[in-house]
Design brief:
Blueprint: E1 6-11, H1 16-29, E2 33-37, E3 40-45, E4 54-61, E5 64-71, H2 85-102, H3 129-143, H4 147-164, H5 170-201
Antiparallel strand pairs: 1-5, 2-3, 3-4, 4-5
Length: 202
């Protein structure tokens, strides 16, 4: 087994349909699609260019959930390390929250102790998605005029977008990451161009 993968074997002893429900909810919200990679069936999200490619593989046998997660389109990278540290951190935290919610008690009759229907908690971090999109657009627009502010806004947009990729607003969040990346490039090019122009003129 590749050592670059984040691997967990979690003893849940939960009903298989409950585990399938939470796993499918997580995969759908995060935009994962099933694909074949190097001869094994895995779940993949991200193109590896504008947004970091994330991979997930899991199985649930005899009450034990086996998880393998990694990032990187061309080579497997663990969910730690300096390169891409922020998206790795958010991805790892989302998986740890998923494991926590998989342990929530599920009464057999679907009712809690007061006789009310049990509401299953599911992971969702959709709050930053829309603000990230707005900041990404502003980062591009302002980056053409004031590069330093464009860099700041684009950086915040990328950070918030990465966090919201683990949510039901995955599509908006991913767009925010792309816009933030474009805004960052435009702002930096404008900044460097301004420095070169000043040097040539003065």
């Amino acid at each position: 087994m590749p050592m670059a993968r984040w691997v967990r074997d979690e003893v849940l002893n939960q009903p298989a349909d409950f585990v399938d429900f939470l796993m499918n909810d997580y995969l759908m919200k995060n935009g994962f699609k099933q694909t074949e990679r190097k001869g094994e069936q895995v779940w993949k999200e991200g193109d590896g260019y504008f947004s970091m490619a994330r991979f997930l593989k899991y199985s649930y046998i005899n009450g034990v959930l086996h998880l393998e997660a990694w990032v990187g389109l061309f080579r497997e990278n663990a969910l730690k390390g300096f390169a891409g540290s922020l998206p790795k951190k958010f991805y790892r935290e989302s998986l740890e929250e998923l494991l926590r919610l998989l342990h929530q008690p599920i009464p057999q009759n679907g009712m809690d102790q007061t006789g009310q229907p049990v509401v299953v908690q599911v992971p969702d971090h959709s709050g930053p998605a829309v603000p990230a999109m707005v900041l990404g657009i502003l980062g591009i627009a302002i980056g053409l005029l004031i590069p330093i502010i464009g860099v700041i806004l684009s950086g915040i947009a990328m950070s918030l977008g990465q966090r919201a990729r683990n949510s039901s607003k995955y599509g908006i969040a991913r767009s925010a990451v792309i816009l933030g990346t474009i805004g960052m490039v435009i702002s930096l090019l404008n900044w460097i161009g301004g420095i070169i122009l000043n040097f040539l003129l003065f």
